[in-house]
C-alpha cells in the first residue's frame, strides 16, 4: 500500500552544552506537512550531564513529540536508534489509541526503527 505522505525521519540526538542539552533534527520531507511544525529542531535540556545515556534513550523525547501526530495522520516515523523497552510500551499506547478512537488502526500505519541516517 502506498502512503499519502513521505515518512518523518528523526535524526539521532546530538549533545551540546557540556552534555546537558540534546538536539534532534526532525526531517519532514513532505512540504504539505510543514504547516504543522513550528520548528524542525527539537531540543531538551537537563540539569545534569546526560552524555553517558544510551542514544536509544536520548532519542525518546523527540520521538514522543511527533509520534501521536504521525499516528493521527498516518505517517511512518523513522528513527536511527530507540530503546527496545520504550518501543514495546509505545506500541501498547498505539493499540489503546486504536481501540478507543480508530484513527491509528490499519497496517499501513507503523513506526520504523533502526534506520541508518
Characterization of the model:
It is a single chain. The protein is an alpha/beta fold and 117 residues long. It has one domain (8-113). Helices cover 31% and strands 21% of the residues. It has three helices and six strands. It has helices spanning 55-58, 60-73, 84-101; strands at residues 8-10, 14-16, 21-28, 41-45, 77-79, 111-113. Strands 1, 2, 3, 4, 5 and 6 form a six-stranded mixed β-sheet that branches. β2 (14-16) and β3 form a beta hairpin. It is globular, with a radius of gyration of 15 Å. The protein starts with 7 loop residues before the first strand and ends with a strand. Mean pLDDT is 83; it is low at 104-117.
The poorly predicted ranges are: 104-117
SSE order, one letter for each helix or strand:
EEEEHHEHE
The percentage helix is 25-40%
- N-C termini distance: 24 Å
Judged by helices, strands and strand pairing, the structural class is alpha/beta
Biggest sheet overview:
6 strands, mixed
Outline type? globular
- Overall mean pLDDT stands at 83
- Quickly count the domains: 1
Q: Could you tell me the number of beta strands?
A: 6
* Count of helical stretches: 3
The percent range for strand residues is 15-25%
What Rg, in angstroms, do the CA atoms define? 15 Å
Amino acid at each position: 500500500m502506498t502512503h499519502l505522505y513521505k515518512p518523518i525521519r528523526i535524526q539521532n540526538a546530538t549533545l551540546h552544552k557540556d552534555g546537558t542539552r540534546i538536539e534532534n533534527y526532525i526531517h519532514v520531507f513532505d512540504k504539505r506537512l510543514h504547516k504543522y511544525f513550528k520548528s524542525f529542531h527539537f531540543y531538551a535540556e537537563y540539569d545534569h550531564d546526560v552524555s553517558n545515556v544510551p542514544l536509544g534513550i536520548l532519542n525518546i523525547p523527540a520521538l514522543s513529540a511527533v509520534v501521536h501526530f504521525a499516528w493521527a495522520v498516518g505517517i511512518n516515523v523513522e528513527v536511527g536508534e530507540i530503546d527496545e523497552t520504550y518501543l514495546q510500551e509505545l506500541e501498547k499506547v498505539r493499540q489503546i489509541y486504536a481501540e478507543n478512537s480508530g484513527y491509528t488502526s490499519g497496517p499501513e500505519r507503523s513506526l520504523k526503527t533502526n534506520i541508518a541516517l
